[in-house]
Structure formats: C-alpha cells, structure tokens
Design a protein that fits this description.
CATH topology of the largest domain: Four Helix Bundle (Hemerythrin (Met), subunit A)
Number of strands: 3
GO molecular function, one term: DNA-binding transcription factor activity
InterPro entries: GntR_C, TF_FadR/GntR_C, Tscrpt_reg_HTH_GntR, WH-like_DNA-bd_sf, WH_DNA-bd_sf
CATH architecture of the largest domain: Up-down Bundle
Largest sheet: 3 strands, antiparallel
Order of helices and strands: HEHHEEHHHHHH
Protein name: GntR family transcriptional regulator
Number of helices: 9
Keywords: DNA-binding, Transcription, Transcription regulation
CATH class of the largest domain: Mainly Alpha
CATH superfamily of the largest domain: GntR ligand-binding domain-like
Strand content: under 5%
Helix content: over 70%
Oligomer: single chain
C-alpha cells in the first residue's frame, strides 16, 4: 500500500469516529496492520499531520489531534468568519442555474444526512455555494477547519440529535439565496455554524464531567 492509501484509510476512520481524538498511532502496530514497512506509515502520518489531523512529536510518536473546548470554539469562530465571507461573495455572483444546482445538492445532502456519508453530503452542499466566490485558498482553509470539526462531531456522536435542525438551516440558507436576501442568508449561515459549535461543546463538556 502507498502512503496515500494508508492515509486515506486512517482519515476515513478519523472522520467516522473510529479513531478518537488523542489516540496513539504506533508506527509498529500500523505497519503490522497494513502489511508494510514503517516508512510508508511514517509518510502517511506526515500527510495527516499536514492536514491538521495528527500531531507528531519528536521522540514521542504520533497521535490523533486532541483539542480543548476553547480551541474548538476558536475553530468555529474562524469558520464563521471565512464561510460567511465566502457566502456573501458567492451570492453576488450567483445565477438562476447556480441556484438550481445548489438546490439539487441540498436535496442529495438531505438524503445522505441519516447515513455514514453525512459529512460528505454536508460539505458538498456548502462547497457548491462557496466555490462560486472564486476564492480557492479560502475554500481550502475552510475545508481544513471543517475536517477537524467533523472529527470531533463524529467522536462525540453529536450528529443524530442535531439532524432536523441542521437540515432546516440548510433550507433557510437556500430560501434566502433564492429571494436575493444575502444578509439574511449570511445570518442563517452564522446561526447554523454557531449552533453546531454550541451543540458540540455541550457534548464535549458533558463527557468530561
């Protein structure tokens, strides 16, 4: 297996909550599991470290990232800034054809919401909007921050209880975009992300007593 294939496998386990935050990643154990030497394991861990999913400490090995509630709140605050800006820029460039595509992706996302691919469906919905802003680097930053959030949402199992509100908030964003109500769409997105942060942080704090 190549480092990229190994990284993809581990990334999937992180996103699904199989590998929880703070899990030690032994190169020896991973090499045995994947049937490879330690070199591709090391390279795979470096790939994941570059994505912000794994921490590598010299002479201490690697582990999946572990964040405090304060750090998680910071990530969501950054997402609100970047994503609301992207939405505002996208709205200015939006055409009727774009709106139809956004609605198509939203409906597909709704179908995915109850299954293991919920995160992919959610990102597909947001990405189809943000791409219209034409801000490639900003989009990459958003995706990286969002990936970290998904890791923690999956680890703490907060998605099932949030699903109805989550889908309703997506509907509200599209409704405002269709009406040309950019400010209301941006506000709906801000509420959506802030609510997601509050929901996750509540579960994180409850799990630590």
């Amino acid at each position: 297996m190549t480092p990229e294939m190994i990284a993809s496998e581990l990334r999937g386990e992180l996103m699904a909550g199989v590998l929880r935050p703070g899990t030690d990643l032994s190169q020896v154990e991973l090499a045995e599991r994947f049937g490879v030497s330690r070199i591709p394991i090391r390279d795979a861990l470096r790939i994941l470290a570059g994505e912000g999913l794994v921490d590598i400490v010299a002479n201490r090995g690697a582990k999946t990232i572990s964040l405090t509630p304060k750090e998680v709140r910071e990530i969501y605050d950054l997402r609100i800034l970047l994503e609301c800006d992207c939405l505002q820029r996208a709205a200015a460039a939006m055409t009727p054809a774009n709106l139809e595509e956004i609605d198509r992706v939203r409906l597909k996302s709704n179908l995915d919401a109850g299954g293991p691919d919920w995160a992919d469906g959610d990102w597909a919905f947001h990405r189809v909007i943000y791409t219209l802003a034409g801000r490639r680097r900003q989009l990459a930053m958003i995706e990286a921050l969002r990936r970290t959030c998904v890791l923690f949402v999956s680890a703490y199992g907060t998605m099932p209880s949030k699903k109805p509100r989550w889908l309703g908030e997506h509907d509200a964003i599209v409704k405002h975009l269709r009406r040309g109500e950019t400010e209301q769409a941006v506000l709906a997105l801000q509420v959506h992300l802030d609510g997601a942060a509050t929901h996750l942080l509540t579960h994180m704090k409850a799990s630590t007593g």
